Fold these 4 entries.
Entry 1:
Amino acid sequence: MEIQAAHEEVDLTRFEAALRTPRAVHRSSCIRNVQVQPGLSLLATELRLTEPVLVESETFPAVCLSVVLNGYAHGKTPKLDTGFRPGQVWISSTNERVSTRKIILRAHPVHTVELIVTPQWFEFAEARFGDDPAFDAMHAAIERPTATRRRALDARLRQIAWAIQHPPGLGIVTALYLESRALDLLALLTAEFQGNTTYLLPANLTPLALDRIVAVQEQIDRDPALITTITALATEFAVSPSKLKQDFATAFGIGLGRYIQERRLLFGRELIEQHSVSVSEAAYRSGYTHPANFTAAFRRRFGHPPSAIRRFS
């Protein structure tokens, strides 16, 4: 499958055009747009708001896979639910253009990932996949009125979406990494139309182990500062530390210790940006014993010290 390398870090101009109150968007917000192939795009949104905002937009012919990691919105479109909440997956398709409205709440940062497949992609891929039943089913969906299926976010999709929100490297390394994750999402979306949802489960994990690991992640996300040690976390979930780390890496593709640190750093950044707390207070409330350790980890992760965002908050 040919990949067209077209990656751009876009500003919020296009998004702000849909807002009634564009100044409500915090400067740390980011939208990544990756064109993977003609008619196939990946959109990763990290949105921080200073007040609730009304977003007005329009649907267009496409099949979409949408993953909501964080954030809340209330739909305001008659006969069409456009709201969202954390831990959701949407599979939607339409051939219609419908004006939509939703209010995004400011209480939580918004982290979403979307794969958008337009009619242009089906023309591009027809020669290769035109006789495939799943391809035909997905193509047919784009020619019918709006249809949406929602379900709970599974571990495999959560792993891919989280990786898209936190890509490694810079430049071409980041671009190629995001494009490869977009193709992972395309395979999962195709599996939905094939009816093969077992593809969504991480290999080598029983349903019980998968439920446990999702519960562990949710507990970390609620308050990463409360996680004192991996041993204590493992004891709480009645599993050995080595088994917990192994299953977590299998489910989400990231080490448990690194994930805890990532959530602590993101929480600390949120405290400084949105609540104007001091760097020391942010460090302690994020679970760091020494502010110097928080500052060093913050610089490695974001490329600048936490004091830099405090000066401009």
Entry 2:
Amino acid sequence: MTIRYLSAQVVANRLCAARQTGWMRLAVPALGEVVPGQFVQLTCGDDLTLPRPFSVLACDAAAGTIELFYRVVGEGTRRMAAWQPGEEHALLGPLGRPFSQPPAGSRVLLVAGGVGLAPLDFLARSLAARGQETVLFMGTEGELPFPLQPESAVDALPAGIALQSLQRLGVANRLASLRERPGFFRGLVTDLAIGYVQQLSLEERARLWLVTCGPMAMMAALARWAATEGVPGEASLEAHMACGYGVCVGCVTGIHQAEGHRLYRRVCVDGPVFALQAVDWQQAG
């Protein structure tokens, strides 16, 4: 796999009503195949020194396009929010180590926070295409640029609001928010996910494979719970990055080794996906 700067043309750029988050489709024919868990670096302006990293939400290698889900938080993403179809910008990728294939027969539990939805939505679609049993929970405080729909209670899932696109693919999902919002579970997404697991039988719990991406505190809480329950899985870490390909060593995080030692690993090339219990969550979260 070759990592190089490429020309990315904006195909579509859609913001939610509150302009807090956005969805973008880019045409990058030379990029090739991107798999769930990988990311790209986007140059947001010649006068901005560093590119910005974004997990890939979707990839259509045949069409030569990728999709991104981003949150408007600083100067770079504010500029991105104003990009129009036809504009071209520099993109570096594909970058990072992707998610592993879940064990055969497992039930995959995806827990996303905010824009951490991007790699997990991508993964959910990939798993659904292979017939893997998958359920997704997302916590969000902002508006979303995606269609939502109400869903009735089914099995261990409560009634609530869901992402329409995933429901149509057979991926059951529910959304959580800390504020009162119609149809949303009110509370932490970790509580929603753990409450779901508690409704499962012991046999079903034994088949769980947990994958998470979002705020460090959220993932750390999930990792502690998973350790007590014996639930294996992976986490995709978020980090400030400069180069994106391991040279600057500016995105290191503590990773526990099998022999008990802790080493620092680069999130951009050794990750962003790591074994859930390998991460030093006390330092990271």
Entry 3:
Amino acid sequence: MSDILLLQFCHQIAAIHCPDSELAEALTGYFRHHLVTTASSPLVVYKIIPPSAASASWRVQRGEQISFTTSERRYLFAYLAYEVVAYLVNHSPDYVVLHAAGLARAEGGAIFCAPSGSGKSTLTTWLVAAGWAFLSDEMVAISALDGQMHGLAIPIVLQETAIFQAQPWFSPQSWPYKLPDVTWLDPMSIRPQVLPASVQPYRLIFPHYTSQTAFRVQPLSAAAATFRLWPRIINYNTWPDKGLALAKKLAQQIPAYQVIYPDLSQLTEWLDSFPAL
């Protein structure tokens, strides 16, 4: 295995020089759907510097500066898993990046916007098992040039309390550097599939799970969808207006719905009622 990993997202590339084989293996597994083999000029270069006689700490060098220092190797993975993606996202002027799940059916994609801890990952897992193609359960990037949707295809993050719901579909595959009470699952372990590089989004969904009410769908106006979508933009500092114009454009182009559901099968049936693009 090469000690240089090349990670691509939003058409930007980061190089990670990692001499530690265990850490390199974990990063390779985590980012495997975004690794490329060549890059003429990476946007950013990270170097992992092991402890030495001069320093007892592990260090991460980004460019010419030390960006992270730790005495425990296990913290390197969590730092790099977040930092590398965040750097690429915040230096991608041609994309609006949303904290959202992205799934596809035929040639069309659906964007699911919901806060962390609301069951978005459980919903993603269910839909992948039901035949939808996985783009991301965490982050989608919409091109400002052609409107195509790309997903950050890293493992699905499930809280341990939600694992029991997924047991009928797959055997959980844990990564070496997991967090407490969280399981990371490769979407390929749910259902072998070809992950789409990009799709045209055709539905914008704001799901909300509750066991206390009946299934309900509310079509949203462009203004209401913009109001809900704008706070989900991750790289808002990239845009002069914090991404408001792009959020408004998406809300005007893509039909949006707020969906309250007590049962995943009801939501799946409703989604499948839409004709695919």
Entry 4:
Amino acid sequence: MLAFNRFLYRNCLAAFALGTGVLCALASSPVMAEAPKKIATANLCVDQLVLRIADPDRVTTVHWLTQEEDDSSMAAMASRYPANHGQAEEILATKPELVFLGSYNAPLAGMMMDALGLQVVRVTDPVTYEGIVKNVRQIASTLGREARGAAIVTSFEANLAATHNVLKDRDLRVLVYGSGGYSAGRPGLFDATLTHVGLTNLAAEGDDAGWVPMTVEEVLLAKPDILLLGDYRPDSPSLAGNITRHPALAGISEHVRVIHMPTKLWNCGTPTIAEAAAYLVEQITQAFPESAVR
């Protein structure tokens, strides 16, 4: 880290000449001891927590994906702010006192801002509902908004309680299948949501954790009662997304209930996951009414 600071110092003049002198200007800025007044965030999932908790006028920039309707449940709110692509120059140009990042995104930008003395908070990707609550509380504490965080947690837990095990008596076996040919193993928020509402996740029955690769043939052989297809940018074809449009899967609806799941409801560990649970309950209750329970 010391070597990196020396590197920045020796190259300050060159940085100013290239129009990136903001890096050097901030290199000697002290860390703020009081609550931060200007907050930058640069991760799709973390952004959606920060936007719920922070005072709106304190946010200086959000990640560009958070402004995309297909990716974010808070696109409308996020569109009020300048967008960044996880680049240090973009973030530093907004002169933040505090920066939120995810665990894995923008590692170089994070290192640079660490070296410049900025307060950088890295928020882990949760794989359980408890992890979501922990992150809400961490961000609320960092921002001095504990009461707001507590209210979000209370609302989240109440919404979850409304869908807990409501489908358990239907004894339904489910597979999630999405872009690239992956299903949802355990641990993971997809599995947590399926289990929460009372469904059996077939991909969690093996030893695989997290994302589980599956071929179309394996999906067919699993014989799920329900196939949950992740709908990510359905109007924008891609090689990864083509697998969910495989002809064999198109014909499976004669024997298996196919439900299309909007990706933005459960692609992030935020309180929106409770909406995903409610959406599942609504769709499956319509597909499997009480009279059709085995």
